[in-house]
Amino acid sequence: MENRSLLSLSVALLSFLSPCLTALTPRVSFHMGSPGRHVTRFSSPEVSNTSTLLLSEDEDMLYVGARDAVLALDVSHQDAITLRSQLDWSPSDKDLEQCSMKGKEMADCPNFIRVLQFLNATHIYACGTFAYSPRCSYITSETLMMSMKPDEGRGRCPYDPYQRNTAIIVDGELYTGTVADYRGNRPLISRHLSEGRRVDLKLDDTLGWLEDPTFISSSFIPEEEKIYFFFSEVGREYDFIDKFIVSRVSQICMSDVGGQRTLQRRWTTFAKAQLLCQADNELPYNVLQDIDSLPPAEGAPADDTLFYGIFTSQWSVNSGRSAVCSFRLADIKSVFSGNYKVLNRDTLQWSTRVQEKVANPGECGLHNASDNALRFVKENFLADDSVRPVGRSVTVVSAEHSYTHLRVQRVQGTGSRSYTVLFLLTESGYLHKAVMLQGGAHVIEEVQVFEQPQPIKSLKLSTAKGMIYVGSSEGVVRVPTANCSFYWTCPQCVLARDPFCGWDPASRACVGASNSQASL
């Protein structure tokens, strides 16, 4: 009885405090080396730019793409990250000399690994910039050895180590968003490694389907059999004096094999739409920085999949501020099934198409469509409506912190209630853990992961192990998602409002929610 009463009081207190304590000021702050927060680091004087991260299926091994190397790190032990094996993969002196002769700085000419994906149960597919001449190779995941000679990586990996890209392998095929030329003027969304009757596909370069994009991420939705790409680009549909940046979501169907005559070896299912992250009476946060998907709750339809993104603004009035918006897959699909804009080739002006649809842009199964239908989808690829955020409002707005990366997790709380937890990385090198409550976001804690601000390239969440990994230019940092033992008393445990933790009356300790008989 006492335990149930204590739990009821705790839950009531949690609910009461939810609406009134939602400031983005972290409740607890852990600075570098603080004994109250366990952080594990891996770095080596011989290894730098550990920026591309890939977790094994059992989450005991972390593969890292670095400068001139691919690493296999054993992360199965809580107290240490150890190097199990390393593949050195660097350009020759001749390659470096040719890179320098092209006018590139020698510091930018090594092989920066930018694509690292599991091809199957035994092999990893990796690509690097390789002295501004991208190369790709198959690597055995067990021994970290190349199984064949590297081949050309054009269209699969950027030339420039500073250009952002995205890549995902589904059913043995590689889907990428990157640039396909040395100068970075040919952006592509393409498919590679196709076998059998399937063919590699790409965008039609002549149509302006992409306008100087910065690729952010890609996501596979199995129920839809579609790949969604997220990026920012110049919004040519806006007739502004200055270049107006817009954030986009685009989609392609995995079943796409191109057209028979029109759009041969080109996507027939490509469509894109604007992601609108905007608070009332404010300029939009129009530049996408990072995005992560949150699968639907157990038993819920795929349409309930959410995408949480960090957005910043191109205008100085919002300088230093960032916002988080969430978008529902159902709303994205609704926009793609609606009307499309059409470009007047003479005036270069976009307008809403008023003529009857000849075909449905973005629809799967168009490979047998008529040339007339394919010409229609070729010119009608920009959705007329924008994808609005959930609740038509911004999830988080921060004037104090400039966020660059995020990961999102659904955590089971009391009874059947679940909480959404955001892990947000600041530009200044702090990791924020925020829980979404009824009144908004509450930042439970911040953890300093780097002493000096530095470019963060990758953030990887291990839900099974309860860890989050940060990849940067100087090394890899691992932070446990929960820190329950820091709270010594029941009030401290409850007031933390951390859904990972709960007060256990039997042991009189704040423990992980999975171990608690009275989790909060």
UniProtKB/TrEMBL annotation:
UniProt-recorded Gene Ontology molecular function terms: chemorepellent activity; semaphorin receptor binding
Disulfide bond is among the record's keywords: yes
Keyword Disulfide bond: yes
Signal peptide per UniProt: 1-22
GO biological process: axon guidance; neural crest cell migration; positive regulation of cell migration; semaphorin-plexin signaling pathway
Stored SMART domains: Sema
UniProt keyword annotations, A-Z: Disulfide bond, Glycoprotein, Membrane, Signal
Gene3D superfamilies noted in UniProt: ligand-binding face of the semaphorins, domain 2 (3.30.1680.10), YVTN repeat-like/Quinoprotein amine dehydrogenase (2.130.10.10)
Name of the featured protein: Semaphorin-4B
Species the sequence originates in: Dissostichus eleginoides (Patagonian toothfish)
